[in-house]
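Homework-ish question, so no full write-ups if that breaks the rules, but can someone show me the predicted structure for this set?
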Amino acid sequence: QIFLLWKSLILGQLILGNFFAFQVHTVTLIPGDGIGPEISTAVMKIFEAAKVPIQWEERNVTAIKGPGGKWMIPPEAKESMDRSKIGLKGPLKTPIAAGHPSMNLLLRKTFDLYANVRPCVSIEGYKTPYTDVDLVTIRENTEGEYSGIEHVIVDGVVQSIKLITEQASRRIAEYAFEYARNNQRSSVTAVHKANIMRMSDGLFLRKCREVAENYKDVKFTEMYLDTVCLNMVQDPTQFDVLVMPNLYGDILSDLCAGLIGGLGVTPSGNIGANGVAIFESVHGTAPDIAGKDLANPTALLLSAVMMLRHMGLHADAKKIETACYDTIRDKKVLTKDLGGNSKCSEFTTEICRRVQDMD
Amino acid sequence: FTSKTLMQSNNKPPPARYGGRHTVTLIPGDGIGPELLNHVRELFRFSCVPLDFEVVNINSSITSEDDINNAITAIRRNGVALKGNLETNHTLPPSHKSRNNVLRYTGLDLYANVMRCQSLPGVQTRHKNIDIIIIRENTEGEYSSLEHESVPGVVESLKIITRNNSLRIADYAFQLAREKGRRRVTAVHKANIMKLADGLFLQCCREVASGYPDIAFDSMIVDNTTMQLVSKPHQFDVMVMPNLYGNVVSNVCAGLVGGPGLVPGANYGHNYAVFETATRNTGKSIAGRNIANPTAMLLASCLMLDHLKLHDYASMIRNAVFATMNESLLHTPDIGGQGTTSEMVQSVMRNIKSSGPLTTEL
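A: Not a homework solution, just the prediction itself:
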């Protein structure tokens, strides 16, 4: 009789489990150009093998001219993103003399993607001179030095304007502290050059200090940009979460990516207003190897893992991340850029196998 | 136009020499500056270097503008200065500008900041055999200190790039590369985003490059540069860049060769030169504890001696410093040892004594 009770309990749990599994999330997938489509396929295959409750909606974001002559992303893409709120994006080609602005810029403006988040964690098995790196760079992505406001004052004298606003600085600082709290990070460091740019970086710093007051559980420090660079290449383990304006963020996030092995293995996420979040791989389209099954899907895969964590699907995230790291650590099936000579599909199959073995 | 004046200044006799002795302005600064510069004075006295120091005491606690002007006049008079870093209190209002910058730009026009990042034997680093020269535009760019609050809550900061200064620094870079027998100059920029400003800088570099066909020229975007520096630093030879990127790249390179205590820096203008440590740190937390690394300041003083054409003294001190560096027991804490500043300086003096020339008593 106890045996029958046990059986019904297990059956009951199975039914409940299947019920929760039916809650499928929709994610807008933007494969991109060059190697984009093949690495997106790899990610979809791995997610299927891991039985992640995600339904993909593929969209194209090539710019079109809207009414009034303004460049915009296709309405189907915008509608899908607004509905699903979560996006995964491959690399996009930067058009030269195509007449329209970069697609990344267009996406940023459309969804007000104000925070660029890049977690940099050393990958065991992909050796670099730096081990034990575990930090996150959070970069303000809408203003600062990249406002694009430039003028020729007189012939031979150019001025470029760096814009810092209270609102954007407060928003990014709040995001940084929220991120630190939600991801169990112990400290946030504001990176600035207020000794030279007294008013602009001074404003940014003041806002960070104000927001820090509301997050007493997270330690707040400030450091000059040059000191951060100096210390980062000597001992990156002293850093945790870094928050900074646009230009410094651009430089530092790429510096940190270089520490762990480059853009081919670095995930990245862009957080926007209204709950929109787009996760992407930040490497290029690699047109020379496109379509040859040679690409490395790690960057896009790790970005997808970051996306799962953002959605709260921590168990699935851990499973896929572990499978990926284990495959790299084992060194038996690696793509060319990681030092092996396997194909992209072989690498993908290996990760799928590990994921299935874990179930 | 610029190459001719540069050649002329190279042929100019070294400044301020009376009775066979040079006079150099000494600015102790804050933090570890005073103690390190005292060691330099001690070492010069010991080695009988024909040089006198005129000490100008400006530091962050002195607020008068007159003192700064006196310092500038002293440097003008002597032509050469050796300085520690002055701390900038950034909680003070914007009108209170960084004293270091005031010295550099106002009236001295020290337009080229030159830093040679060289791996030193005996120092453990992740990357070996690095030898990169970084030339940084020192007067304009993001450091123009032109800021205003257009509406409450919105601040604009101006970055100025001019054709004249860009041509000048590019020319300096190629001249230096040729002089030192270097093969390639890389311009670091962000012209894909700042199309007009960095675009102008890049264009000027290209123009100057065409006049130096013996030296290869390429360019790299600053974020890619930092990524390449931490993974493959040996691809770089000479690098030239505007002010802010120069700050970032020089600190990254200093970190690569072992830290702020090892790299000397020099600021050159047409008429004046000021020498200091490359990464310009005040070292507040280690001041007065006899643990600061004197290498950077000692090597900076050697650069100064070279500038004054006292090459024999420069080589003597430099070799003694390298010999001391080889003894890891003497390394100061910043490079992983437990030695003290005075022990290192004593060792340098011993090395000088044993190499032969006349010295005072140890």
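Now go work out the reasoning yourself. Hint: The first strand of chain B starts at residue 17 and ends at 18.
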